[in-house]
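User: What would this chain look like folded?
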Amino acid sequence: MSATKRCLEDVSTLLGFGGEINEHLMERLDEGLRVFLDDLCDGDTNRRTPHGWVGVKTPEDAIKLLMTSRVVIISLDHDLGLLDPRNGNAVVKWIEEKVVVEGFKPPEIWIHSANSVGVQNMLRGVASIHRHAGTELPPFNPVWEAGLDQPPG
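Assistant: Here's the prediction, encoded as structure tokens.
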């Protein structure tokens, strides 16, 4: 099985298509994905995946979605309850490497974390991504509040 097919099957599972690669999956990918990386999304807390977003709990799942080149916005939590370096910054580093090595077009990157040191590290990575991609660094992205259903503003 090719790596592309395996990736699409993983993405199909993440998007609720049961691992099938079909026209509905492809239509969903064509719409562009908004990805919300957070260990608490849709768990026992009041934090929910915002409406219209795909919630994932691990950097690996976020990266699988990024590999489709269909992610238009990704919102990252830093602390994911996993062992370092499995945190939101791992996704920033992956994007940065792909931009530098392969010319990957990065999505808009938002950060929603209470870890101020983690946020600063991720923001440095985001600035580097924009520098290497030759794009302008947008103003600081809104901070998401726990339980927020819609993007701010």
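Strands lie at 33-37, 54-56, 71-76, 108-111. If you want, I can go into more detail on any region.
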